[in-house]
């Protein structure tokens, strides 16, 4: 239903083009918000597929999957903000009681998020609503989610993945402000669709109203007027408003005066009860519990500045949680070095530079190859950069010593190779790139087509304001004649926290209902397709890499690339 609003893009290219090259936030990093609570339940659901047990999956499989996904996202130049559900969530969702006890993985997951240098934020209520509010206020640039509710709450820039597992870096990006005022795919449009078809707070909606009819109605003034009323009117005013609004809904269905429905729905119009829509449901969608932004959100000032990956802390965490032992050096190669190198390179390009660097420009040994690694006609090439691991391995050895473990197994590891997009490496180490082309007499690779931004750079900052303007409406009702809407040229009122809120938390959903991430892992690929549906983000990872001899970890040498057995670590979304 949201397909007309989607742009299919490479996530890596989008981050490089619209974050790094445009000097976004003066740090080169886009700020992407992630619904952490959804990740927790999706990981648990994937491990609960029939026939899959912890005895077969190894130590802490859910947490290990979360770690692997953090590793994958660390290889993209984005600053990630993981938002967790808060105590003011509704006490019931999908006709199920919402428990107040936090998910058992929460504290462990937060440790890993912070160790990777990402940020944690606690929402007052639902994470989806908080993310949408932060996105609409231009505090975060994009929301990465598999939950449809983020559209209903008013998110303007949303990233989702299509179903092609062979193109893991290929994502669908939705820019609500670019679709048009009259389209159903606006905040008000999605709001009305949820009310008519049903959602988390009301599974039924308007009985007999299907998605096609709801989508058509969402492009009419009925949507904007209902959202405006649910946002701005008092309880008594809203009750009076709904009396007239229902009559106009019945008129729209029975007469189709604007021709948007293509036919009359007289039986559906006559079946609308006087109790529809439920004002409480409207309030839950229109005025969720979100952080008040009137006085600013203090932590958000740091979100544009990517944090530093805490290598010593990661060593400690993975040993305590996963017990990798002597295999930890293979795991660092598989999960850590690529992301650490890319982020050090990006941070070195913007003042004041990284406070501490392990695999930044000073660690470059050779540039050995150039190729088109990002699958997009407009994508820049990448360079295979061999970097010294001396500084990083010193930290690893010290961390292992604190754990009373021997670092002798890694003494032969002196360098590794990492693919770095050309805009980043060219700015971080221009002289090394020039030396490579002169030494190897390689011509520079150019994209085969010009890049078109997801939305024009000058529009990114005003999209949310534009969306709010187009979604604001006031109804003037003089007679039972068809509805008259007057669009206001002012932004909608800011949402405020409810006067009372219960301590709640999310209960595990049925796996059939999940809009889940594909969490297939190599040690047991037989995850049923029931764990997936039309919208999922494919973050497939291989849990084990073939054991390599110490020789394969030695210096790769000038002009040498990683051998075939290490290609598995080139994981992208």
Automatic annotation (TrEMBL):
Q: Pfam families recorded for this chain?
A: XPG_I, XPG_N
Q: Which domain of life is it from?
A: Eukaryota
Alphabetical list of SMART domains matching this protein: XPGI
**Domain XPG-I as annotated: residue spans:** 114-185
Q: SUPFAM superfamilies from the xrefs? A: 5' to 3' exonuclease, C-terminal subdomain, PIN domain-like
Keyword check for Repeat, yes or no: no
InterPro entries according to UniProt: 5-3_exonuclease_C_sf, PIN-like_dom_sf, XPG-I_dom, XPG/Rad2, XPG_DNA_repair_N, Yen1_H3TH
Keywords attached to this entry: Endonuclease, Hydrolase, Nuclease
Which is an annotated GO molecular function term of this record?
5'-flap endonuclease activity
* GO BP term (any one): DNA repair
State what protein this is by name: Flap endonuclease GEN 1
Gene designation per UniProt: GEN1
């Amino acid at each position: 239903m949201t397909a007309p609003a989607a742009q299919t893009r490479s996530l890596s290219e989008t981050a490089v083009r619209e974050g790094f090259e445009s000097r976004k936030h003066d740090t080169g990093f886009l700020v992407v918000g992630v619904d952490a609570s959804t990740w927790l339940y999706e990981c648990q659901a994937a491990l609960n597929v029939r026939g899959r047990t912890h005895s077969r999956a190894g130590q802490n499989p859910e947490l290990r999957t979360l770690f692997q996904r953090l590793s994958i996202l660390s290889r993209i130049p984005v600053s990630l903000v993981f938002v967790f559900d808060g105590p003011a969530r509704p006490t019931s969702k999908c006709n199920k009681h919402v428990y107040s006890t936090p998910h058992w993985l929460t504290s462990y997951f937060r440790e890993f998020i912070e160790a990777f240098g990402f940020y944690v934020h606690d929402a007052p209520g639902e994470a989806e609503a908080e993310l949408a509010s932060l996105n609409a206020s231009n505090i975060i640039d994009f929301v990465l989610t598999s939950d449809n509710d983020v559209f209903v709450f008013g998110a303007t820039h949303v990233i989702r993945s299509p179903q092609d597992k062979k193109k893991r870096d290929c994502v669908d990006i939705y820019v609500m402000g670019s679709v048009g005022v009259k389209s159903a795919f606006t905040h008000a449009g999605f709001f009305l669709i949820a009310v008519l078809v049903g959602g988390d707070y009301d599974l039924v909606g308007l009985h007999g109203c299907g998605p096609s009819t709801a989508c058509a109605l969402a492009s009419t003034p009925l949507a904007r007027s209902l959202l405006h009323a649910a946002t701005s009117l008092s309880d008594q005013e809203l009750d009076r408003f709904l009396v007239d609004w229902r009559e106009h809904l019945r008129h729209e269905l029975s007469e189709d005066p604007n021709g948007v429905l293509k036919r009359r729905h007289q039986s559906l119009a006559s079946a609308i009860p006087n109790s529809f829509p439920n004002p409480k449901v409207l309030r839950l969608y229109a005025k969720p519990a979100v952080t008040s932004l009137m006085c600013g959100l203090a932590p958000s000032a740091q979100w544009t500045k990517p944090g530093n990956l805490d290598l010593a802390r990661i060593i400690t965490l993975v040993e305590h949680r996963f017990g990798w032992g002597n295999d930890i050096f293979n795991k660092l190669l598989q999960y850590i070095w690529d992301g650490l190198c890319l982020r050090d390179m990006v941070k070195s390009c913007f003042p004041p530079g990284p406070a501490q660097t392990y695999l930044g420009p000073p660690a470059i040994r050779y540039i050995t190859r150039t190729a088109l690694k990002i699958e997009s006609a407009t994508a820049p090439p990448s360079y295979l950069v061999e970097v010294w691991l001396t500084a990083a391995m010193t930290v690893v050895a010290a961390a292992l010593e604190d754990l009373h473990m021997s670092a002798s197994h890694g003494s032969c590891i002196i360098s590794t190779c990492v693919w770095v997009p050309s805009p980043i490496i060219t700015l971080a180490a221009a002289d090394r790139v020039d030396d490579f082309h002169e030494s190897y007499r390689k011509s520079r690779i150019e994209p085969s087509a010009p890049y078109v931004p997801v939305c024009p750079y000058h529009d990114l900052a005003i999209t949310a304001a534009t969306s709010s303007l187009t979604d604001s409406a006031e109804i003037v009702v003089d007679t039972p004649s068809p509805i008259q809407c007057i669009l206001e040229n002012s932004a909608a009122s800011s949402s405020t926290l409810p006067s009372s809120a219960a301590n709640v938390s999310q209960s595990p959903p049925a796996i059939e209902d999940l809009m889940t991430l594909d969490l297939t892992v190599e040690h047991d690929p037989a995850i049923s397709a029931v764990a997936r549906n039309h919208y999922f983000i494919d973050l497939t990872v291989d849990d084990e890499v073939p054991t390599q001899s110490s020789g394969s970890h030695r210096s790769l040498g000038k002009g040498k690339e990683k051998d075939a057995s290490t290609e598995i670590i080139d994981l992208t979304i």
